[in-house]
Write a structure and sequence with these properties.
17 helices; homodimer; alpha/beta; 2 domains; Rossmann fold; four-stranded parallel beta sheet; seven-stranded mixed beta sheet
Chain lengths: 451, 451
Amino acid sequence: MDTKIILTEKEIPTSWYNIQADLPEPLPPLLHPGTKEPTILPPPLFASALNEQEFSKERYIEIPDEVLEIYKLWRPTPLFRAHRLEKALGTPAHIYYKYEGVSPAGSHKLNTAVAQAYYNKKEGIKRLTTETGAGQWGSALSMGCQFIGLELKVYMVRVSYDQKPYRRILMETWGATCVPSPSEDTEIGRKILAEDPNSTGSLGIAISEAIEDAIGRDDSHYSLGSVVNHVLLHQTVVGQEAMKQLEKADAYPDIIIGCIGGGSNFAGVYLPFVKDKITGKKPDLRIINVEPQACPTVTKGPYTWDFGDVAGMAPIALMNTLGHTFVPPPVHAGGLRYHGMAPIICHLAKLGFVEAQAVYQIPTFEAAVKFARTEGILPAPEPAHAIKVVIDEAIKCKESGEKKNILLALSGHGHFDLGAYDQYLSGKLEDYEYPEEKVKEALKQLPQVPA
Amino acid sequence: MDTKIILTEKEIPTSWYNIQADLPEPLPPLLHPGTKEPTILPPPLFASALNEQEFSKERYIEIPDEVLEIYKLWRPTPLFRAHRLEKALGTPAHIYYKYEGVSPAGSHKLNTAVAQAYYNKKEGIKRLTTETGAGQWGSALSMGCQFIGLELKVYMVRVSYDQKPYRRILMETWGATCVPSPSEDTEIGRKILAEDPNSTGSLGIAISEAIEDAIGRDDSHYSLGSVVNHVLLHQTVVGQEAMKQLEKADAYPDIIIGCIGGGSNFAGVYLPFVKDKITGKKPDLRIINVEPQACPTVTKGPYTWDFGDVAGMAPIALMNTLGHTFVPPPVHAGGLRYHGMAPIICHLAKLGFVEAQAVYQIPTFEAAVKFARTEGILPAPEPAHAIKVVIDEAIKCKESGEKKNILLALSGHGHFDLGAYDQYLSGKLEDYEYPEEKVKEALKQLPQVPA
């Protein structure tokens, strides 16, 4: 068969798939961080259309034409059959990978960035704010805002701003304003700088600055790149394409494998398939969420109520969490260091529809290099975690002689992560055990929620 | 119409197109650098199949199956219609771009890298050597050798090795050995280091080291990434695809625009179209080779005999040249700094089938940013030179009301060139006039060739 299964632009899904229509038990509500009462996303920060999507039970939500037109710049993305990796492993398994790295921003993030910019613009908003760690989300939203016609201000964690300038430059090339956080532009930023002028910042501080900025201006909203339901919804364009592509190859996955940080990339791939599991059409389908050992939210974190953000200002969600004050070790997969997890993923894990597995950083890079040397593409460190598990499963197939279909969610390329590859190749990469004691401490800080 | 015109894997051309079959006057010979007699490429350095291709008059040369299978990892590449750029310019012109940046190595270079590795392997060679400046060619050949199963040693100009580590890491990830040049691994390297232990190297030194290494070992050959005929031949897979794609859009270009350094990318796109101009089928087709003002080989250099390399060891070719000792100013488009030009391009220019134009660096980056903000893709600095001319021509169409079809050769992405974008965006980018006096000096060093 072909190396790539491609679709035409006419075959791009015209709706997002909303898993909330098919859940056997509804999602628990979000709670207000102060009152602990059920709440929506804060209206001063989010477009009402996005808030509607957040709680909608409609099975399909139409993708606006303007968003679809922009999607066509990189969608449909290719589905590859990993012939060369299979051969190198000597496995009878068929490995497929859905590759989002062909987007100009280099990952799946653009799928929701364009959609969020669109709905905000439609409601009269002129400007978005957001935070970014290494810059993956900030750069995607920069392109999204440029193409829809919104201003964007990105608060970038100072240590990344200083050490990893490439994604900052990418944001600026697409017309966004990017400042190091803590910044002089917000009250909280000024307060932190007054206490420590050399603060290297944190994602928590950057979130607080982006929110303060958006709340303070009528023309501005805030934007999130993962975790919440509407972001996962927008990413289902990926999984629906993958399903069509596998149909063309006359295949259905036995195992779907991807990495989870906030969870939007992988949920975007598997939610359309989970439907088949819920309805009993494909009861044996395995879905493996892969996390770093350094931040094993679903494998080790309790399923409990916790704040979505470090500062305790965001809504409280029922989810697996390592505690909102938990700061994971500095693994290179910056996108996999969130303390919590998308409530949809946690709900599906609790109901037994999906499973989770944690892997170490060094074997992850070993798998990434094997992938690059057989398939060509240099994977980002985040999906490299999933590649490690794909290889493990493919080797099990070799041992058992089973010809399973494995689908990998390859969320992006690693062109801006070559420093991490260098550390691995030169034998300098460190690994990190699960920081059990730190998690225990962080779990003491959970919010008190009445039963 | 669609944003992208895509082909299936079955539509990848199965032969390369050889312009030598259709030239109204044959190409002048290569001359031996010592005897000044007609010569082939040095047999101790090049596979005989590549030497045959270098001088073949066969119109079509079959692409080996193994090469085609590897091409399928990224080929056929998409042809885009630049709807958003057209709209931003308000032009009636239709702008199409053929994008080679989807290859894992990020440019067209992989098309010849895989082919060269294949033919060398077939003739029993175990190992290739090459030089690289910023690393574009070195990284492509690293992937090519890894996939065909050859060792590769890359001599990388030390200043790039130290300042731009990303492409070095990419080479190592694909399994190549990369050393800074001058190195301790060759006689010439040791000699230069003995004289100046802090030498930052040059492309000339790196070429000399790679050649010395390959000559000294029976298992090794040397590999070139541009300029020579067989490299241009391998790149014609790009132009043949573009022609099929334009046919599907019911379009034929009025103007084809691309950048030229050694010339292989752009010739690869236009040679299949030049055929139509030679045969009189499309006499009005304009083909514009774009160069930097800092190194305007075809626009300013005389058409004369010169060495292919700085050291005067390589064969002598009849071409436009600024003199083999000419060192151009440090423009960011490292791939456009060669003193000479592919003899095929110079021959076609002399016969009047193609034209050339030189542009400045700052307006080039201005055009690149406009492109990124309308089409999403961040272009490499090299093809950004062509984008500048595409925009100029599209604006002329706006003024005249002509609905011309413009085809842009977009040879690669700029993910590893963001430092240059940063300089442009922060207003720190310098520009360079044509260094007329330096060229005059260099042209005094031309080899003496009997009439």
